[in-house]
Automatic annotation (TrEMBL):
This is Macrophage migration inhibitory factor (MIF). Pfam families: DUF1904 (PF08921). It comes from Geotoga petraea. SUPFAM superfamilies: Tautomerase/MIF.
Amino acid sequence: MPYINLKGFEEDKAISEKIVSKISEITEKPKKYIMFSNEENKISFNNKSGYLLEYRQIGELEYDKKLKIVKEITKILQEKNIHPEDIYFIFDFYPRENWGWNNKLFG
């Protein structure tokens, strides 16, 4: 159950759907289990606007898949004239017993 939080980007339903679809494709997780949130609050890096994509999930994700997420999401954001050097990614992974849903823990 991946959770994606995009910070610094104005809400754009089409871009959000592309990101969720791409994450689903790369991770092989159904879209219905991918949580997505968008925070429009401003982020700055080196005195200019920046963007941060936080990716969290239960269990680990292979290096190749993380790299593919970085490359593919960067391509999607470039459609909005966002430069790759302004996009940052953070990947966090959790044990099953640290996530709950539907009145129970996963682990």
